[in-house]
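Notebook entry, structure prediction.
Reason for the run: the old model in the group folder had no record of what sequence produced it. Starting over properly, with the input documented here first.
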Amino acid sequence: MRPSSRRTDRRRAAALAIPAALLGVLAAGCASVDEEAVAALEDLAGVERTSSSCDLGGCHVDVTVVGDIGAEDLEVVLTEARTTDADGITVRLDRDEDADDPAVSLSLSDESDPDADGDVAALAVAARATAGVGTVQVALGEDGSGVDASTDGERPVWDVAEDLWRQVEPLPAPRLVTSGATPDTGERSRLVADGELPTTALELVRSVEASGTPGYTGALVDADSVLVGARGLDAVTALESAVAAAPGAGEVDVEVVVADNVLAYRGDEESGSGGPDGSGPGGGAGPEGATEEDRRTLLAALGASPEVQAGVDGSTVVVRGDDLATAADAVDAARAAEPEVAARVPVTVEVDGDVVELGTAGSADLVRLAALLRADPATTTVEVEANAPEDELEPPYDTEAQVIVEVAAPDLTTGVRQVAAVVASWPGEAESLSVAIRAVDPEGRSPSVPLRVDRRDGTWVATGTRGTEETIATGIAAWEAGVAGR
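New structure, fully documented this time:
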């Protein structure tokens, strides 16, 4: 990652804060655990190993128990672990990865209710035996309990969540989050149950899935609100009809949004993504002020170019196709048709594994640069990311875009020359680029060099950014030769 002035300020602040924190620890006395109590844990039934550690945040005890431990033995382990005076306790059930055992772990704070230890132990053992469970993490704290689970893709998320909830419900202030992929089709979905299982919302989502409506990309159920993902504008109307016909449609707040992955859409807190008007459970303006309606408008404009397909990942419109140059033309046309919306909606282009992140400010000429680089048979990978002015990058990284290129070449000099020759032929208007070039030789060696290149008097001039003096000198010389056509 590139350093920025904001990141530097945070580092300075952290460096200044550490001595003060240390003084506080010295004044209060060093934290510790009862090591005899920790060692005694290893004598308990089912315990395989223990460890303890202390830092500025307090002391922690880790315990690993056999995977087939019983609930009563596990409760004893939790009870005895509390006698170590640790601020936090983590207990992991050992697992045989070859047998696809679920990964189950428990975290208890010293302020959590010890009366809940029995229910926590029962949940851990039951989760281990629940079909479709991939991982389960249980956290018991002063204010209640949280359970985060994922499925293994063999059963629907909704079925696994219902089974787990029977064990989660007895915990204090129970909250269960279950995520996973739909069996066979792979759509990502999530259920959030906070205090109670949202049975009406579950019934609705199951009905939508059973309808088999094309373009469904998954759902997010959070209490009495539901977000349904649609793969492109064409799927929205049909999914809205399926929602309207589902039981409980009038009792649940439901929104259909364009999202390749509805979890990324909903989970992108920075984007504030949500309803078509910028409100609702998923909703609102993105980092550039974009709304669901803005994204749909840009998708409709891209629909005028049948050579490409467009979807939404998080808050970004993703343009896909068979050719980078064609995708660049489609982006230009859509932005020209909807300039105000285009200024708010970030765009990424993906073609055959090559990725060009334009954001809102990056010119489609960067996609054409990627196309030129990819036209060279020696090029194996191209990644481009436009830098935004608000990134506040520090020199020498304050360029208009980052370009990462991997080429098949006998040595670094040859690889840099190849890339430099392409950049020199590019008619784009950018004045500065950060270019990282990796040359992979027939033996698999892959030397690389990062350069900053600036357009001066009609030619691209390279300077080194990091690396050994020898590598930088080699890179600059090779770049000059490539630009000059030597």
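Summary: Residues 23 and 29 are 10 Å apart (CA to CA).
The old model has been moved to the deprecated folder.
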